[in-house]
Please model this.
Amino acid sequence: MASKMLGKRKRQGVGLEMKTFKGTDGQNYLVFRTPKSSYHTFLEVEAKQAARSCGALDGTPHRNTRKMWENLWQEQ
Model:
């Protein structure tokens, strides 16, 4: 006899698809496609510079990019 599965069915995501593309300008582009075929594009930038632009401080030599983003993430 097969056992029955108890509990709730696992919730599924919205179905975003993601791909990266290398542009003729040498830039990397991150592209998301929604289930309704809307496209959203993002340009890749250097992570540490992006963190600085978003307000992270990196005054100590021990402050790495991950820590900068962790602090920004928690402050937001």
In short: DSSP finds two helices and three strands in the chain.
